[in-house]
């Protein structure tokens, strides 16, 4: 294994770090509320970063998402690449690639996915004389309010799981003008009072989540859909997505630990920096090691996927680390900030919200372990 980035991957990472650093400041994020940062999304797309993912691969995407996670930038980069650009490029027909990829590359189209990570598909697919139609309800779909396309795994009448794309009949959110600063959303997801769109057979409602992911509730009733790939496509898409979002969690944890390092170095107690206290050192060191575990397992899973090697168990492993270790890191970081860590307007609290949201989105961790154990048992028996 060689995790050394290629020159192209390094260049893309450095460019992403510059754009995220310039635009995802604490002041701008505080003013955004829970919506998409349209100005930042346009800047990323103008720089060609979503389009570059086809060339720099999953390792390159993980590197980009680390930079996003460091500053908790409010853009659908992980979703649109993991559920749009990469699946269409890998599994789409020539016609689908020609029709869908240009808009996904330049950001005028945004993709997300509707599924429950550790359960069988909850949507059903039925073939009609006019094509495929889907029926199902998804309480929380990340970035739905910005999405033009939703990737949905559904059970066919033959009992197979296939991937389908549906159009939400919307356009990405326009650049956000700075609204009045609002308090962070409540941890529990709940529908807002006003629906975003009510067109049938695809209905969506705005949903607020722990982290500001512009999420929504998606209801499909005989919704027209087009198939993407074959029966094995969903397993590939899910493995790539788990790896990508684990990379995002690695960045969230890195940013959180960096804030701990700064705070404990400048904050003094009894005439000495907090970082001189052994208990603080040990807690921070544990957080650093947990962060590195997420990062290296994400690199390994991504590298194996790019090398066309078996990577299903590795994707589950990095997803588990992202859940289990990610939760420990953001809790420790908030704790090590003392009283100000409980301030919902402090930057470290934003990392806490993102870390918990990613834990919930990828997990729960015990279910990932159960799935990993089943897969390892099946491989051993084969």
From TrEMBL:
Residues 171-202 are annotated as: Disordered. It comes from Streptomyces botrytidirepellens. This is Acyl-CoA dehydrogenase. The keyword Disulfide bond does not apply. Residues 7-107 form the Acyl-CoA dehydrogenase/oxidase N-terminal domain. GO terms for molecular function: acyl-CoA dehydrogenase activity; flavin adenine dinucleotide binding. The keyword Oxidoreductase applies. Keywords: FAD, Flavoprotein, Oxidoreductase.
């Amino acid at each position: 294994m060689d995790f050394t980035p290629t020159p192209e991957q390094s260049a893309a990472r450095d460019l992403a770090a510059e754009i995220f650093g310039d635009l995802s400041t604490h002041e701008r994020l505080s003013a955004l509320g829970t919506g998409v940062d349209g100005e930042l999304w346009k800047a990323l797309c103008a720089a060609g970063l979503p389009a570059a993912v086809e060339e720099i691969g999953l390792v390159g995407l993980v590197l980009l998402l680390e930079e996003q996670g460091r500053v908790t930038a409010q853009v659908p980069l992980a979703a649109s690449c993991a559920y749009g650009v990469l699946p269409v490029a890998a599994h789409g027909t020539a016609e689908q690639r020609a029709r869908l990829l240009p808009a996904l590359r330049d950001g005028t189209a945004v993709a997300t996915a509707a599924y429950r990570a550790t359960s069988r598909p909850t949507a059903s697919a039925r073939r009609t004389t006019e094509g495929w139609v889907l029926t199902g309800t998804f309480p929380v779909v990340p970035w739905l309010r910005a999405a033009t396309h939703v990737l949905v795994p559904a059970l066919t009448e033959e009992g197979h799981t296939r991937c389908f794309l549906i159009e939400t009949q919307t356009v990405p959110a326009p650049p956000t003008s700075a609204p009045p600063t609002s308090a962070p959303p409540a941890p529990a997801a709940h529908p807002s009072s006003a629906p975003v769109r009510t067109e049938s057979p695809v209905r969506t409602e705005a949903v607020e989540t722990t982290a500001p992911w512009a999420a929504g509730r998606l209801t499909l009733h005989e919704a027209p859909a087009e198939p993407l790939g074959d029966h094995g496509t969903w397993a590939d898409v899910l493995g790539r997505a788990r790896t990508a979002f684990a990379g995002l969690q690695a960045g969230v944890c890195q940013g959180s630990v960096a804030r701990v390092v700064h705070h404990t170095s400048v904050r003094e107690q009894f005439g000495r920096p907090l970082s001189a206290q052994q208990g603080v050192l040990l807690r921070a060191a544990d957080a650093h090691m947990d962060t590195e575990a997420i990062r290296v397992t994400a690199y390994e899973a991504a590298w194996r996927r790019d090398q066309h090697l078996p990577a299903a168990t590795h994707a589950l492993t990095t997803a588990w680390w992202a859940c289990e270790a990610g939760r420990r890191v953001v809790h420790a970081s908030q704790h090590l900030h003392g009283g100000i860590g409980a301030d919902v307007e402090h930057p470290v609290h934003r990392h806490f919200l993102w870390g918990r949201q990613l834990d919930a989105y990828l997990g729960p961790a015990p279910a990932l372990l159960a799935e990993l154990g089943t897969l390892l048992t099946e491989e051993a028996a084969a």
